[in-house]
Amino acid sequence: MEPTVVIGVDSSTQSTKALAVRVDTGEVLARARSPHTVSEGGRRETDPEVWWQALRTTLEALSAHPASAISIGGQQHGLVTLDASGEALRPALLWNDVRSAPQAEALVARFGAKHWAERFGSVPGASFTVAKWAWLRENEPAVAAATAGVRLPHDFLTERLTGQAVTDRGDVSGTGWWASDTETYDDAVLTTVGLDEALLPRVLAPGAPAGTTLPGLPLPPGIPVASGTGDNAAAALGLGLTPGRSALSLGTSGTVYTPSTNRPTDPTGTVAGFAGAHGGWLPLACTLNCTQAVDKIAGLLSLSREAVEPNRTITLLPFLDGERTPNLPLASGTLTGLRHDTTPGHILQAAYDGATYTLLAALDLVLAVDDRPSDEPLLLIGGGARGTAWRQTVRRLSGRAVQIPDADDLVALGAAAQAAALLTGEQPTDIAARWGTSAGPVYDPIERDEAALESLRAALGTT
Ligand SMILES: Nc1ncnc2c1ncn2[C@@H]1O[C@H](COP(=O)(O)OP(=O)(O)O)[C@@H](O)[C@H]1O
Ligand SMILES: O=C(CO)[C@@H](O)[C@H](O)COP(=O)(O)O
């Protein structure tokens, strides 16, 4: 008998990754990837049609494994504006587009950071959808006026599969217009930014299906489609994370998170108080400059990614895109401590250190939400987790044990677990645990490099 198969998708910043997964064992039967294009210069935009074509391409590549259910995980926060026929009115404004920083600042000033933290769980920065919508209204009022539907990236794709305008609790918690204390859209914020609630998708109850597949897609028609969620919430499901078990993701963004039972309410804005896709909370900190920033610096130095040398004097803050943690959207990169004996390898190691430090500093705040200090190994995921220099840097600056799951594409696996949950009635985290998705080598703690940490604290003015 043919095994039951589900498809899990990660539509992230740089690419779409899709997996065909056996429901009984979690075996990945086939995988496909299709790249995205992101605009450069001061803009970070992608045409949602690029995501849709990438999704179709990957689904066609998996068509030898007919699926019984599917789910889409996607990059968080992006603003997709649709006309009445469901076509995008302009490219999506992505999470790492910092042009919306002044609008975020004005929104924080309007309601106060304390109110944002207590009612929404997060103090919005430039990444949050609400700031992007406010930017659009100020800078492209004709587009805002013509908008008939506002979606997050994974909502847009789910709607293309099902015809349903829906979202999930996890990703809607990164918009800035969904209040985490009442789990409803917030009238005061929507009024302030001139957005009619009728333009927003319906928020599904945890575990509720989005609908079934429409005919004419590279999928069997009529199969159930799960709610999907943001990529970090999907990876949390894909790893089977439970409170106190934390993950650090090294992708275009750097993120660090752990599920919590307490609702996060950090008024400093360092910890975003996201909701878990299937219940609970997902306190998270995110940086804008991670693998791409370090790759860029390696490229400038004409070095391979791994050509690091132990660094003693250089401090590099790799804020090439501005930064979100710390909240410095207009910052640029800085390099200090150059000497005659400085080598390119020293500078590259300093770039890894700078990109890793703020994430590790935020991990303590993330774990503090449940007041549950944990010495369980930190799970390292995302494209960067494949690199030795990244692994060593995290070990040296954290002093923690680190575990590298053998499984790739944890976001897509989490989406697959959501899809499987529709068929089996289990919780996605239980499915992921059954599939053994977090299994992989554990690296023992090594002594923390206090000198490097001290230099970074000094450079950031946090000593
Ligand atoms: N072997 C490797 N070593 C280090 N970094 C890697 C390796 N392979 C891929 N990467 C990094 O992974 C990044 C992509 O990671 P990914 O998690 O797929 O990003 P995203 O989800 O943001 O699209 C690239 O920017 C690249 O720098
Ligand atoms: O903005 C956030 C989290 O709040 C980012 O983590 C995005 O969700 C993009 O993720 P990647 O494409 O880097 O995985």
Structure in a nutshell:
This protein is α+β, with helices and mostly antiparallel strands. It has helices spanning 48-61, 101-111, 113-120, 129-139, 141-146, 153-162, 169-172, 187-192, 231-238, 291-300, 344-368, 388-398, 410-424, 428-435, 450-460; strands at 5-11, 15-22, 28-35, 45-46, 69-74, 80-82, 92-93, 149-151, 166-167, 178-179, 184-185, 202-203, 211-212, 224-225, 229-230, 247-250, 254-257, 272-275, 281-287, 315-317, 334-336, 378-381, 402-403, 442-443.
Account of the protein in words:
The chain has 463 residues and is an alpha+beta fold. Helix content is 34%, strand content 19%. It has 15 helices and 24 strands. The protein has helices at 48-61, 101-111, 113-120, 129-139, 141-146, 153-162, 169-172, 187-192, 231-238, 291-300, 344-368, 388-398, 410-424, 428-435, 450-460, and strands at 5-11, 15-22, 28-35, 45-46, 69-74, 80-82, 92-93, 149-151, 166-167, 178-179, 184-185, 202-203, 211-212, 224-225, 229-230, 247-250, 254-257, 272-275, 281-287, 315-317, 334-336, 378-381, 402-403, 442-443. The strands form eight sheets. The protein has a seven-stranded mixed beta sheet, with helices on both faces. A five-stranded mixed beta sheet has the order 3-2-1-5-15. Strands 4-7 form a two-stranded antiparallel sheet. The radius of gyration is 21 Å and the shape is globular. It starts with a strand and ends with a helix. Residues 12-15, 251-252, 291-292, 295, 305, 382-384, 386-387, 390 line the site of adenosine-5'-diphosphate.
